[in-house]
Automatic annotation (TrEMBL):
InterPro entries from the UniProt entry: Ba3_CcO_II_C, CcO_II-like_C, Copper_CuA, Cupredoxin, NosZ/Cyto_c_oxidase_sub2
Function: Subunits I and II form the functional core of the enzyme complex. Electrons originating in cytochrome c are transferred via heme a and Cu(A) to the binuclear center formed by heme a3 and Cu(B).
Cytochrome oxidase subunit II copper A binding domain location: 49-157
Superkingdom as given in the UniProt entry: Bacteria
Subcellular location: Cell envelope
Keyword check for Lyase: no
Membrane-crossing residue ranges in chain numbering: 9-31
Protein's UniProt keywords contain Metal-binding: yes
Keywords: Copper, Membrane, Metal-binding, Transmembrane, Transmembrane helix
Full protein name: Cytochrome aa3 subunit 2
Chief location bin: other
Catalytic activity line of the entry: 4 Fe(II)-[cytochrome c] + O2 + 8 H(+)(in) = 4 Fe(III)-[cytochrome c] + 2 H2O + 4 H(+)(out)
Length: 157
């Protein structure tokens, strides 16, 4: 098959660019040991109820307008169910799973985490607007997945 000289040049440039891109990704992922910013704390998923801070799930005030929310995801539910948070408060969310991979997405925000058994996933968020925020599991976790939700109520301070 005959290829035009310019086609060969562009093919070489395209393949070269792909090789450079994959090399950069490989070096960043493997040589530098880059990992996601959370999900670094490990625990035994069989002993979640005995392991601090998951032995006392819920919302705890830890400072001036600053809270820690400890959540446990398990077959088709989040625990605790309903949470009330003051508007504008900084909330440090920590979540783990007892059984299978779940997701935690707070609708209307950029909070979106994958919750894997044996790992603690965390992030910090501040709710600026009062209202009810729906928490959904966005990773298929079994036959009751569609019913796995809870709410966060953000109230005026």
């Amino acid at each position: 098959m005959h290829m035009h000289k310019l086609e060969k040049i562009w093919l070489i440039i395209g393949v070269g660019t792909l090789v450079v891109f994959l090399t950069i990704i490989g070096v960043g992922a493997f040589a530098h040991g880059n990992e996601p910013p959370s999900d670094l704390t490990i625990l035994d998923p069989q002993k979640v109820d005995e392991t601090p801070p998951f032995n006392e799930p819920g919302l705890k005030k830890i400072g001036e307008n600053e809270y820690e929310l400890i959540l446990i995801a398990q077959a088709f539910s989040f625990f605790p169910n309903d949470v009330k948070i003051p508007k504008g408060a900084t909330v440090h969310i920590k979540v783990t799973s007892k059984d299978v991979v779940h997701g935690l997405q707070i609708v209307g925000t950029n909070v979106n985490m994958m919750v894997t058994p044996g790992h603690v996933n965390s992030l910090t968020y501040s709710f600026k607007e009062p209202g009810n925020y729906l928490i959904l599991c966005n990773e298929y976790c079994g036959v009751g997945h569609q019913a796995m939700s809870t709410t966060i109520e953000v109230t005026e301070a």
